[in-house]
Amino acid sequence: MLSAAVGVGAVLAAHGAAAATTATPCTALGGTFPDGATLKLSKALGYTGQPGSPLVLAIQAADVPANALSPGDPSPAVCSVGMVVSSNGNPKQSQIAIAVLLPEGKFGTASKDAWNGRFLGTGNGGFAGTVNTSTLGFGIIPAYAVTGKTYVVANTDMGTGLLFNCNSLFCGSKEGVAYYPTQTPGGLYGDTAAIVDFGYGATHLMTVAGQALTGIFYDARPTYSYFHGCSTGGQQALMEAQRFPNDYDGILAGSPAYDRTHLHISGAALYEATHFGPVDAKGLPDSYLTNAALALGHGGVLAACAGTDGGLPTDMFLTKPAMCKFNATKLQCTGAAGEVPCTDPAGTSCSCLTPDQATAMNHLWEGARDTSNRALYPGYERGTEDPTAALGASLTQALHEPAFDSLEYWALGANFSWQSLFKNTTSPQGEISGKIAAVDATRIGENSFAEVLNANNANLSSFNAHGGKLIMYAGYEDPLIPSASTIDYYNQAVTDDPATPNYTTLYLAPGMWHCSGGPGVNAFGNLSANLPPLPTSIGDDIMGALVAWRETGLAPHRIIATKYVNDDATQGIAFQRPICPYPQNASYIAGNDPTQETSYVCKAGNPVKNQQFTPLYGPK
User: Fold this and answer.
1) DSSP count for the chain of H helices, then E strands
2) DSSP 8-state secondary structure symbol assigned to residue 613
3) Does residue 396 sit in the same domain as residue 529?
4) pLDDT of res. 376
5) Which of 25, 103, 109, 452 is the most exposed place for a label (fewest CB within 10 A)?
6) Is residue 613 a part of any domain in this protein?
7) How far apart are CA 457 and CA 293, in angstroms?
8) Per-residue pLDDT at 443
9) Is-contact 534 541, C-beta < 8 A?
10) CA 436, CA 260: separation in Å to the nearest integer?
């Protein structure tokens, strides 16, 4: 029980909670099972007293004063709760950290004065491993700053932290264990309960526990429940809509890592594409894309395509990247005098790509292929090769093994090696199809690895029957999860049910990186470091649009997205543009001020199908 107590204590410490000198409605929730609220919450989760049923192992709770969640941002006093839940009642196999913030109208009370009557579940990133305290604050602050009332907000470490010491980037891979020796080699390998927790169980338990805790604290259940997550959080969002359609009334799913097993293996395939060929004197393979090579490719893309797709010729990003067909072979060295190949890792400029570099760059855009040359996963849109992109190729190439390949260790064990996906390390030709099948088919209890981890079901009819509304979003310039995969999911949903736009919509932000950031508009109520200029507004804030859609029936239309100067809201607005319900796109009205969103109109467009999964993979 010590690890459980330490886990929840760390959550509370992150919120600045102080030890209570007298009991309050908040501190009364704390205890070790069956004390405090642990027994009530356990029963809400399905505890029966029999082995295998969920159990709340421990709760710690403390009152946090107003304005203590984020320096300089207004926040109410909150009851900060950290709990550890075992999904099967066995703390040796499952320990899920869950944090819940409950607004207090007055410090140390259970007043509803600062609560808007809603519950907000939030997502994590990567392999999670810790409760995302910044996301908790992001859930509390915007609504409170505008209305003086806000959500009960919850988050979970997805069960990968307390027992396995994972973090967002690593969970048991060789590189992860080398950097973080406390990580369990092989990560979650062999632990069925923990893999199910990560796949979908922890998020559902967080939801049920958070809603039940709300009822205990306020003696009132939430009127509406919402979820917002991006990346892994987007996968959590779609898992909820598919598996637990009654959990939430409205869901925001950003850049969802929904086809997780194939996404992670495709990352290894693209890593291989930039790590084959002869090794030069600096120890780099000939196909390695140096920062200078990436910059050269990015410049070539912008010169060829910027301004031809509804945006401006001066844009440092593409508005409709699917229209761009630039081929990296146009930058290939010819042997002409004065050429500077892009092979120096310390070089800041160059003039041409080696043949292997040109091939590798095209592979990034074309996407990973299996052994039979079938599309395993969509490629990254042109524009994502930007060497400054967060979580882009500049970072992922520099690792000693493919990024996020811990997932393969969970299926194949601690001795897995990424090189085993390929016949050898000097050729991109692989044995990848057999490994895909082996990973997907690994048994996790009564289900397969793919069934537990992939949220590929595009049939959202049960969520619709509940009255749920789903808004998806992605950055067109996402260098980690290709935006085409999000588009493919939406396209499949519409194919399955032509009425899908009545309850699900998709927004694509030109020039936005993974979930946030980038040279384009990137602040619109998404999980960003910056709030939109008008938080909670249905025109500026995608969460505000979702709430209005679910609670009033007002369907979302164009949303004003903002690019701040240097991505710093305190420096003012650089420009604004609308993001439009897919497949519409924003188009510039010639002669108008290009920094103003009113200078762009949402125009009808055709569904984007330039990069699609082979039917064997992807959404179903």
Assistant:
1) 17, 16
2) -
3) no
4) 94
5) 109
6) no
7) 38
8) 96
9) yes
10) 12
d(CA 175, CA 23): 46
Residue 307 inside a domain? The answer is yes
Instruction: Write out pLDDT tens, residues 34-47.
Output: 999 999 999 999 99
Mark whether 477 and 546 lie in a shared domain: yes
d(C-alpha 123, C-alpha 612), whole Å: 26
Order of strands, edge to edge, in the sheet holding 250-254?
31-32, 55-64, 77-86, 96-104, 150-156, 115-122, 224-230, 250-254, 469-475, 504-509
3-class secondary-structure state, position 90? coil
Q: Looking at residue 604, what DSSP letter applies?
A: -
CA 564 – CA 550 distance, rounded (Å): 29
Nearest by Cα to 227 from 254, 202, 209, 201:
254
Distances (CA, A) of 143 to 146, 155, 213, 501, 533: 5, 18, 21, 27, 13
What's the total number of domains in the chain? 3
pTM, rounded to two decimals: 0.95
AA letter at 311: G
Assign 3-class secondary structure to 170-208: CCCCHHHHHHCCCCCCCCCCCCHHHHHHHHHHHHHHHHH
314 and 389, same domain (yes or no): yes
61: Cβ–Cβ under 8 A, 6 or more apart, which residues?
12, 26, 27, 28, 29, 30, 36, 79, 80, 81, 82
β-pair type (504-509, 469-475): parallel
* One domain, residues 154 and 27: yes
Final residue belonging to a domain, choices 415, 449, 483: 449
200 and 336 in a single domain? The answer is no
Sequence letter at residue 334: T
Q: Are residues 435 and 500 located together in one domain of the fold?
A: no
Query: How far is the CA of 146 from the CAs of 114, 172, 482, in angstroms?
Result: 12, 43, 34
Angstrom distance (rounded) from CA 311 to CA 587? 6
Measure the CA–CA gap between 99 and 105, rounded to whole angstroms.
19
Ranges under pLDDT 70 in the chain: 1-21, 423-430
**Domain assignment of residue 511, given as a range:** 461-603
